[in-house]
Design a protein that fits this description.
The chain is an alpha+beta fold. About 45% of the residues lie in helices and about 15% in strands. The radius of gyration is 19 Å and the shape is globular. The relative contact order is 0.23.
Length: about 210
Amino acid sequence: MSFKNNQFDDLLFGRRSIRSFDPQIKISKDEMLTMIDEAAKAPSSVNMQPWRLVIVESPEAKAKLKPLIRFNTLQNETSSAMILIFGDMRSQERAEEIYGKAVKENKMPEAVKQEQLAKIVPTYDNASREEMSHIVHIDASLLAMQLMLVARAHGYDTNAIGGFEKNQLAQAFDLDPERYVPVVIVAMGVAKDKGYDSVRLDAKDITKFY
Protein backbone atom coordinates (compact mmCIF):
# COMPACT_ATOMS: atom_id res chain seq x y z
CA MET A 1 0.00 0.00 0.00
CA SER A 2 1.19 3.51 -0.81
CA PHE A 3 -1.00 5.30 1.74
CA LYS A 4 0.29 8.61 3.06
CA ASN A 5 -2.39 8.62 5.73
CA ASN A 6 -3.71 5.42 7.28
CA GLN A 7 -5.49 7.00 10.24
CA PHE A 8 -9.10 5.94 9.79
CA ASP A 9 -10.53 8.56 12.13
CA ASP A 10 -8.78 11.34 10.22
CA LEU A 11 -9.79 9.93 6.83
CA LEU A 12 -13.41 9.74 7.91
CA PHE A 13 -13.88 12.77 10.15
CA GLY A 14 -11.37 15.05 8.43
CA ARG A 15 -12.95 14.73 4.99
CA ARG A 16 -14.28 17.97 3.51
CA SER A 17 -15.87 18.82 0.19
CA ILE A 18 -13.11 20.75 -1.55
CA ARG A 19 -13.94 23.07 -4.43
CA SER A 20 -10.59 24.77 -5.05
CA PHE A 21 -7.52 22.65 -5.77
CA ASP A 22 -3.87 23.36 -6.58
CA PRO A 23 -3.92 23.34 -10.40
CA GLN A 24 -0.17 22.65 -10.54
CA ILE A 25 -0.56 19.19 -8.96
CA LYS A 26 -1.27 16.35 -11.36
CA ILE A 27 -2.01 12.79 -10.30
CA SER A 28 -0.16 10.23 -12.41
CA LYS A 29 -2.08 7.65 -14.40
CA ASP A 30 -0.42 4.85 -12.42
CA GLU A 31 -1.47 6.31 -9.07
CA MET A 32 -4.98 6.98 -10.33
CA LEU A 33 -5.30 3.35 -11.44
CA THR A 34 -3.95 2.20 -8.06
CA MET A 35 -6.58 4.26 -6.25
CA ILE A 36 -9.33 2.91 -8.50
CA ASP A 37 -8.16 -0.66 -7.85
CA GLU A 38 -8.35 0.03 -4.13
CA ALA A 39 -11.73 1.72 -4.35
CA ALA A 40 -13.11 -1.13 -6.44
CA LYS A 41 -12.95 -3.36 -3.37
CA ALA A 42 -16.33 -1.76 -2.63
CA PRO A 43 -19.26 -4.17 -2.54
CA SER A 44 -21.71 -4.51 -5.41
CA SER A 45 -24.84 -6.52 -6.03
CA VAL A 46 -23.86 -10.14 -6.85
CA ASN A 47 -20.36 -8.74 -7.46
CA MET A 48 -21.28 -7.41 -10.90
CA GLN A 49 -19.14 -4.28 -10.35
CA PRO A 50 -21.21 -2.11 -12.71
CA TRP A 51 -19.12 1.02 -12.18
CA ARG A 52 -17.34 2.46 -15.22
CA LEU A 53 -15.05 5.47 -14.93
CA VAL A 54 -13.94 8.21 -17.30
CA ILE A 55 -10.97 10.30 -16.11
CA VAL A 56 -11.17 13.86 -17.42
CA GLU A 57 -7.76 15.44 -16.95
CA SER A 58 -6.57 17.04 -20.19
CA PRO A 59 -7.38 20.68 -20.98
CA GLU A 60 -9.32 19.53 -24.04
CA ALA A 61 -11.45 17.07 -22.07
CA LYS A 62 -12.08 19.61 -19.31
CA ALA A 63 -13.21 22.13 -21.92
CA LYS A 64 -15.67 19.55 -23.22
CA LEU A 65 -16.93 18.90 -19.69
CA LYS A 66 -17.23 22.56 -18.65
CA PRO A 67 -20.64 23.37 -20.22
CA LEU A 68 -22.13 20.23 -18.70
CA ILE A 69 -21.33 20.87 -15.03
CA ARG A 70 -23.43 23.94 -14.31
CA PHE A 71 -22.01 25.86 -11.30
CA ASN A 72 -19.14 23.43 -10.60
CA THR A 73 -16.60 25.03 -12.93
CA LEU A 74 -14.01 25.89 -10.25
CA GLN A 75 -13.54 22.20 -9.46
CA ASN A 76 -13.16 21.47 -13.17
CA GLU A 77 -10.60 24.24 -13.66
CA THR A 78 -8.39 23.47 -10.66
CA SER A 79 -8.66 19.73 -9.93
CA SER A 80 -6.11 17.22 -11.14
CA ALA A 81 -8.96 15.19 -12.56
CA MET A 82 -12.71 15.03 -12.80
CA ILE A 83 -13.76 11.41 -12.43
CA LEU A 84 -17.03 10.62 -14.18
CA ILE A 85 -18.64 7.55 -12.63
CA PHE A 86 -21.23 5.70 -14.69
CA GLY A 87 -23.34 2.65 -14.04
CA ASP A 88 -23.29 -0.06 -16.72
CA MET A 89 -26.86 -1.21 -17.35
CA ARG A 90 -25.49 -4.37 -19.03
CA SER A 91 -22.91 -5.26 -16.41
CA GLN A 92 -23.98 -8.93 -16.55
CA GLU A 93 -22.17 -9.19 -19.89
CA ARG A 94 -18.96 -9.39 -17.85
CA ALA A 95 -20.33 -11.95 -15.40
CA GLU A 96 -18.39 -14.82 -16.99
CA GLU A 97 -15.18 -12.77 -16.81
CA ILE A 98 -15.74 -11.86 -13.15
CA TYR A 99 -16.75 -15.28 -11.91
CA GLY A 100 -14.17 -16.99 -14.12
CA LYS A 101 -11.46 -14.89 -12.48
CA ALA A 102 -12.73 -16.02 -9.08
CA VAL A 103 -12.41 -19.66 -10.16
CA LYS A 104 -8.93 -19.07 -11.60
CA GLU A 105 -7.79 -17.52 -8.31
CA ASN A 106 -9.26 -20.43 -6.31
CA LYS A 107 -11.85 -18.20 -4.65
CA MET A 108 -14.81 -20.12 -6.05
CA PRO A 109 -15.38 -23.68 -7.32
CA GLU A 110 -16.40 -24.03 -10.96
CA ALA A 111 -19.69 -25.68 -9.95
CA VAL A 112 -20.62 -22.68 -7.78
CA LYS A 113 -19.73 -20.34 -10.63
CA GLN A 114 -22.03 -22.16 -13.03
CA GLU A 115 -24.84 -22.26 -10.49
CA GLN A 116 -24.55 -18.56 -9.72
CA LEU A 117 -24.34 -17.45 -13.34
CA ALA A 118 -27.40 -19.52 -14.21
CA LYS A 119 -29.35 -17.41 -11.71
CA ILE A 120 -27.73 -13.99 -12.03
CA VAL A 121 -27.52 -13.47 -15.78
CA PRO A 122 -31.19 -14.24 -16.57
CA THR A 123 -32.31 -12.13 -13.62
CA TYR A 124 -30.35 -9.14 -14.88
CA ASP A 125 -31.38 -9.81 -18.50
CA ASN A 126 -35.05 -9.69 -17.50
CA ALA A 127 -34.87 -6.78 -15.07
CA SER A 128 -36.64 -3.56 -16.02
CA ARG A 129 -34.65 -0.45 -16.82
CA GLU A 130 -35.89 1.10 -13.58
CA GLU A 131 -34.69 -1.91 -11.56
CA MET A 132 -31.27 -1.92 -13.23
CA SER A 133 -30.88 1.83 -12.79
CA HIS A 134 -31.59 1.44 -9.08
CA ILE A 135 -28.98 -1.33 -8.76
CA VAL A 136 -26.20 0.45 -10.63
CA HIS A 137 -26.80 3.75 -8.84
CA ILE A 138 -26.39 2.09 -5.44
CA ASP A 139 -23.30 0.14 -6.51
CA ALA A 140 -21.59 3.07 -8.25
CA SER A 141 -22.29 5.28 -5.24
CA LEU A 142 -20.56 2.78 -2.96
CA LEU A 143 -17.54 2.88 -5.28
CA ALA A 144 -17.58 6.69 -5.29
CA MET A 145 -17.58 6.98 -1.50
CA GLN A 146 -14.78 4.45 -1.20
CA LEU A 147 -12.78 6.30 -3.85
CA MET A 148 -13.08 9.55 -1.90
CA LEU A 149 -11.70 7.90 1.24
CA VAL A 150 -8.94 6.15 -0.70
CA ALA A 151 -7.98 9.49 -2.25
CA ARG A 152 -7.57 10.99 1.23
CA ALA A 153 -5.33 8.07 2.19
CA HIS A 154 -3.14 8.96 -0.79
CA GLY A 155 -2.98 12.62 0.24
CA TYR A 156 -5.69 14.02 -2.04
CA ASP A 157 -9.08 15.57 -1.46
CA THR A 158 -12.32 15.37 -3.37
CA ASN A 159 -15.68 16.90 -4.10
CA ALA A 160 -18.67 14.77 -5.05
CA ILE A 161 -20.73 16.53 -7.73
CA GLY A 162 -24.31 15.75 -8.60
CA GLY A 163 -25.12 18.95 -10.47
CA PHE A 164 -24.46 18.21 -14.13
CA GLU A 165 -26.31 17.52 -17.38
CA LYS A 166 -27.05 13.84 -16.91
CA ASN A 167 -28.72 13.45 -20.29
CA GLN A 168 -25.62 14.66 -22.14
CA LEU A 169 -22.64 13.34 -20.20
CA ALA A 170 -22.28 9.83 -21.64
CA GLN A 171 -22.57 10.87 -25.26
CA ALA A 172 -20.12 13.74 -24.76
CA PHE A 173 -17.46 11.18 -23.84
CA ASP A 174 -18.32 8.61 -26.52
CA LEU A 175 -20.37 6.26 -24.35
CA ASP A 176 -23.72 4.72 -25.25
CA PRO A 177 -26.22 6.79 -23.23
CA GLU A 178 -28.70 3.91 -23.15
CA ARG A 179 -26.18 1.59 -21.55
CA TYR A 180 -24.11 3.90 -19.36
CA VAL A 181 -26.00 6.08 -16.87
CA PRO A 182 -24.10 8.86 -15.07
CA VAL A 183 -24.20 8.61 -11.29
CA VAL A 184 -21.75 11.15 -9.86
CA ILE A 185 -18.65 13.16 -10.73
CA VAL A 186 -15.75 13.23 -8.27
CA ALA A 187 -13.30 16.13 -8.48
CA MET A 188 -9.89 15.09 -7.13
CA GLY A 189 -6.63 16.89 -6.38
CA VAL A 190 -4.59 18.60 -3.70
CA ALA A 191 -6.76 20.98 -1.71
CA LYS A 192 -5.99 24.69 -2.02
CA ASP A 193 -8.48 25.59 0.68
CA LYS A 194 -9.54 23.74 3.81
CA GLY A 195 -13.19 23.46 2.89
CA TYR A 196 -15.93 24.10 5.40
CA ASP A 197 -16.91 22.20 8.49
CA SER A 198 -20.54 21.16 8.46
CA VAL A 199 -23.16 19.67 10.73
CA ARG A 200 -25.09 16.40 10.67
CA LEU A 201 -28.34 15.37 12.27
CA ASP A 202 -27.86 13.26 15.38
CA ALA A 203 -28.27 9.50 15.05
CA LYS A 204 -31.26 9.54 17.40
CA ASP A 205 -33.04 11.96 15.03
CA ILE A 206 -32.68 9.73 11.96
CA THR A 207 -33.01 6.28 13.50
CA LYS A 208 -35.80 4.08 14.83
CA PHE A 209 -35.40 0.84 16.78
CA TYR A 210 -38.03 -1.91 16.81
